[in-house]
Amino acid sequence: GKERTLTSGSPEAVIQSYLKNIIDKKNDRAALLFAQDSTCTAADLDRSYFDDNFRASLISTEVTNNRAYVKINLTFSSGGPFDSGYSEKQIYRLDKEDGQWRIAGIPWPLYDCGVSKK
Questions:
Q1: pTM to 2 decimal places
Q2: What are the respective helix, strand and coil percentages of the chain, to the nearest 5?
């Protein structure tokens, strides 16, 4: 499939880059996209399990001042020839920090992140 070209630095481009990095197991790079006050780290990504055989498509982006919400649809194929797999929607929240969009909260595929930062 042809990848849509997203505006560099846009909230959608940040999410695309994040997903690409986790599929490539470049968790340290993916973690650079987390907001500064995020409790999530590359180690959390290392521990996360997800089926990396998926396609992500953008549903919508909503930007209000320094906050953005990017809604995507993830389609997982379980590999059978007639299997359409299943899909789920995820919403990423991003905050603008020093002119860069960063991923806030606990983003899929994470469900919990470092309970303590110390």
A1: 0.86
A2: 20, 35, 45
